[in-house]
Design brief:
heterodimer; A: about 375 residues; alpha+beta; 8 helices; 26 strands; B: alpha+beta; 5-stranded mixed β-sheet; 7 strands; elongated
Chain lengths: ~375, ~240
């Protein structure tokens, strides 16, 4: 696979210039801030530079470009495959309740002989990621790797953008299917958060809304733990105490859920993923060091599959949770640095900070939507 | 240079290569504040977790020592109370152990269902609580069997009065969910003398109370008997209802 990287900033434009790009590229993947993507010019410029490529991308709170973490930027990679074919599909989700159906439709559209993986990007505000991935995995079956992330926005939770061969828009789900024996994927998805305190039972919930734990309002629990930090302005403070939820019926199946909003009238909390009633939960706590170690673990897992690491080009797609950035603050780049140190030397790294990471974990082979994790997928082609 | 400080220096360096010291200080201050906030969160989380775990421990201890249905102390708790009572008895006071077993309880369960049986057991527990003095211990030993420990002065007359009272109160009709129920109770009583170490033994007293209870059952139910090793077949006043 041949890989070209580009980035756009308001100050410098495209670096390097798109004028000399590989116009035979098959696929362009990009991530950018909403402010940058709202102007359709950026998409038009990529389309002009890569006339034959499928172009997929989304908005993000922060974009990952190697070790760098940028806000008002667009990062893109163009890939030309030697022995891999791809297909793209896109669905609009107008109502959250239609998320599973959209996932099923995408899975069915991309299922074909030789399907190895599906890379999916979805609106992180309008789409129920858990339902989307359940539908997608149900239609695609256990074989293909399903990975990707939920598009995010800078901080106002107003709108996010996803695009598939068009200027990015709201409510979209875009997916790419990879086919053939040459294409290889190795993946790692780790949180680095530690559960603490007693286990509780989810006694009342609906979808991604949590009402009661052990018969008491979940809000009260967060109110105690957040203390003076509690804010009803949505999202941010609760992120420092995500939940580890585990199925009572499937030992080892654990998912991290981060609060998106805490409402005190009526008392409920909205999470960035489903909160199944009857499951067990524990509060989680993280600090920058533990999260950074988690990123190194994820990169080790992602890099472990390539026996000839460093000798051939690969693309490391990194999807990390926006909540991790909130906890790590100025140290966020350290997780990118340690991940880079663990990945094959030749791996080009781009990615974004998301509202949900779509990946399997080492403990559970089915893909799910996670929060507060970092998911790294290393993509490369085998030679003949 | 520390990697964080190195990044801060890089960010605070202008395109000309000149270091913007004010900007650098802002980055450094922000990093200190981030660390402070994290420390406060961690401290609060640890403190609250300790409180929660202590509360959970207390709840588990309560569950471990109490009968979930009636809320009475369970057999484990009874054993601990009995051991303590025996220890006090060795200092002079005697103690009495009363074993209480309901009569015809199985018929309630068999004909009206376990939910009614459970409700009846709760009512029995309430009546037993009301029948004893402060300081006496009432426990559910399992099924429809209960036990009472009584200690103090005038033990024999006091325990016999209690046995009579228990038989009388538990045999009074019950109205549960609109249905009138009639069951009885049989009681076996054993005494441990404070000065007699050999007689003041929990297992021994329970065995003796059980023996007396067996006699009460055999001799007509709905009555009470005391354990009398020298004349085991002596019949006490019958208290049938």
């Amino acid at each position: 696979v041949l890989i070209e990287e580009s980035r756009w900033t308001a100050q410098a434009g495209w670096q390097p210039s798109l004028a000399l790009r590989d116009d035979a590229a098959h696929l362009v993947i990009y991530f950018g801030s909403r402010r940058v993507l709202e102007c359709a010019d950026r998409y038009d410029e990529m389309r002009a530079a890569y006339p034959h490529a499928r172009i997929i991308g989304c908005s993000a709170t922060r974009c990952i470009d190697g070790d760098a973490l940028d806000e008002d930027v667009l990062v893109a990679v163009a890939l030309r495959f030697a022995g891999t074919t791809i297909a793209m599909t896109c669905r609009r989700v107008t109502e959250r309740a239609h998320s599973r159906a959209a996932g099923t439709a995408i899975g069915e559209a991309l299922t074909a002989p030789g399907l190895r993986a599906i890379f999916v990007l979805a609106d992180g505000l309008r789409v129920d990621g858990s339902e989307l991935v359940a539908g997608l995995c149900g239609a695609a079956g256990v074989g293909p790797l399903v990975f990707g992330g939920m598009a995010s926005d800078p901080r106002d939770y107003r709108a996010v953008l996803v695009g598939a061969d068009c200027a990015p828009e709201n409510g979209a789900v875009a997916a790419i299917g990879f086919y053939g024996d040459a294409i290889q994927f190795t993946n790692g998805c780790v949180s680095g958060w530690d559960p603490f305190g007693p286990s509780r039972r989810i006694t009342r919930s609906k979808g991604n809304v949590l009402y009661d734990l052990d018969g008491k309002p979940a809000y009260e629990l967060y109110r105690r733990y957040l203390g003076d930090e509690l804010s009803t302005r949505a999202a941010s403070d609760g992120v420092v105490f995500p939940l580890q939820i585990s199925s009572p019926h499937e030992p080892g199946r654990m998912v991290v859920r981060a609060p998106l909003a805490i409402d005190d009238e009526p008392l409920f909390m909205t999470f960035a993923g489903n909160i199944p009633q009857g499951w067990n939960v524990r509060l989680m706590r993280g600090n920058a060091d533990r999260l950074i170690f988690g990123a190194a673990d994820a990169a080790r897992q992602a890099g472990a599959g390539d026996m000839r690491a460093g000798e051939r080009a690969s693309l490391a797609l990194i999807v990390s949770c926006a909540g991790r950035h909130q906890v790590m603050g100025q140290r966020t780049e350290e997780e990118l640095e340690v991940a880079g140190a663990e990945l094959p030397r030749a791996a080009k790294r781009i990615g974004f900070y998301s509202f949900g990471e779509i990946a399997p974990t080492a403990h559970h082979s089915f893909s799910e939507v996670h929060n507060q994790t970092i998911s790294i997928t290393n993509i490369f082609e085998l030679e003949d | 240079v520390h990697r964080l400080l190195q990044r801060q220096i890089t960010r605070a360096t202008r395109p000309s290569g000149e270091l913007d010291l004010d900007m650098l200080l802002r980055f450094v201050e922000a990093a200190y504040l981030e660390a402070d906030v994290d420390r406060v969160r961690t401290d609060r989380a640890m403190l609250l977790t300790c409180e929660e775990m202590e509360q959970l421990n207390a709840e588990l201890l309560t569950l471990a020592h109490h009968d979930a249905l009636t809320g009475l102390p369970n057999r484990l708790s009874f054993a601990a109370s009995a051991m303590a009572a025996v220890a006090r008895a060795s200092e002079g006071d005697g103690l009495a152990v009363l074993l209480v077993d309901l009569d015809r309880f199985k018929a309630v369960n068999d004909t009206l269902g376990h939910a009614m049986g459970d409700a009846l057991l709760c009512e029995v527990a309430a009546r037993l609580r009301a029948a004893v003095r402060d300081g006496d211990t009432v426990a559910r030993m399992g099924g429809d069997e209960f036990a009472i420990i009584q200690a103090g002065l005038d033990l024999h007359s006091s325990a016999e009065n209690l046995a009579r009272r228990v038989v009388h109160r538990l045999s009074a009709p019950y109205v549960i969910r609109g249905i009138e129920l009639a069951v009885g109770a049989s009681v076996g009583v054993a005494f441990g003398a404070g000065h007699d170490v050999d007689s003041c033994n929990v297992d021994l007293l329970l065995g003796q109370a059980d023996h007396a209870l067996y006699r009460a059952k055999r001799e007509g139910r709905c009555t009470w008997r005391t354990y009398e090793p020298d004349s085991p077949h002596t019949t006490h006043e019958m208290d049938r209802r």
